[in-house]
Write a structure and sequence with these properties.
The protein is of the alpha/beta class. Helix content is 32%, strand content 24%. It has two domains: 170 residues, Thiolase/Chalcone synthase (Peroxisomal Thiolase, Chain A, domain 1, 3-Layer(aba) Sandwich), CATH 3.40.47; 150 residues, Peroxisomal Thiolase, Chain A, domain 1 (3-Layer(aba) Sandwich). The strands form four sheets. A five-stranded mixed β-sheet has the order 1-7-6-4-5, with helices on both faces. It is globular. The protein starts with 8 loop residues before the first strand and ends with a strand. 53% of the residues are buried. The structure holds coenzyme A.
Amino acid sequence: MTRTLSKSVGITATGQFYPERIVNNQELALLVDTSDEWIISRTGIRERRWVEPGVGSSDLGVEALNMALNNRGIGADDLDAIIACTVTPDMLFPCTAALIQTKVGASKAFGFDLNAACSSFIFGLSTAASLVASGAYKRVAVVGCDVMTSIADKKDRNTLVLFGDGAGAVIVEEVEAGYGILDFEQRIDGRGAPYLYMPAGGSLKPATAETVAANQHCIHQNGKEVYKNAVRDMAEISRLMLDRNAIDPKDLKLFVPHQANNRIMEAAAKRLELPLDRMATNIELFANTTSATLPTALHQSLGAGKVQKGDYVVLAAFGAGFTWGGMLMKWAY
Ligand SMILES: CC(C)(COP(=O)(O)OP(=O)(O)OC[C@H]1O[C@@H](n2cnc3c(N)ncnc32)[C@H](O)[C@@H]1OP(=O)(O)O)[C@@H](O)C(=O)NCCC(=O)NCCS
């Protein structure tokens, strides 16, 4: 059974933003015991962007959203809602969506944050599409923005090298009949929680001098468990999208996987029997930007002319929770 929206709804514009500061692998090797060779061979990452102190996820999100609005040729006042997808909100509250709303001047919009770790954007996109398909809202912005350096342990080589800061945004609206989001599937399984999490800073373990000293406000990860599940689940959910819509993998124009590790992405593409030139990738220059990987990879693929109206595009994500999801689109513009 496909998950069909009651209207044709799709992405009508994209935007992105990265901070200026480039941090390459050699620079990280000054902070932790690692090497350019190890990072490239195990992850495919060459460099990433880091914010300067005092820059929050909302600041990146605002820039990405402004670009998407410009590309669509509309103003912030034309937005009915803003969904901010992030695991690194500026503050626990108010929500980052509120901060973005004020900074862009979206005076008529409501909004909220959505956190499903690296699956946040795909869950946010389906939520936005459902809001539009309901008829209650016309234009919803989905902003994936993360400052991963705010929760990175600068002494942990296992995680520090993997992440970067950035933002991507899309505008979601009703589109021409037969185009846009054709199907999606989303999953959550809390048995994965111990493998990727931030132990302190929430209600269970509020911040104390001890939790800070123990680096419990940073990413903790069992990389091998995450790796194994990410390959299997992203491949399976993408295959499900193709199979139940009777689309041959060779007719898929673009596969946009969550950019967690190039080996994970390539293994997933291989299981789909897709040539690698059909896979969107930006991990080499930007690393894993969590909620921003999908919208930025999509934005860059569009900029490179890799997708035309009517092309089939599949998004796939996997993240802490565990959470994962897939979405099939027939490109609408
Ligand atoms: C983290 C990851 C890159 C490690 O790659 P891997 O192939 O599993 O690594 P291996 O098991 O071969 O090697 C682990 C060893 O490398 C070491 N290592 C880890 N990070 C390192 C680094 N940056 N530089 C050098 N050595 C490193 C480990 O300490 C370990 O050493 P040990 O065996 O002496 O304990 C990989 O597991 C991964 O990408 N997992 C998924 C992570 C992810 O995507 N997270 C976000 C999901 S949304």
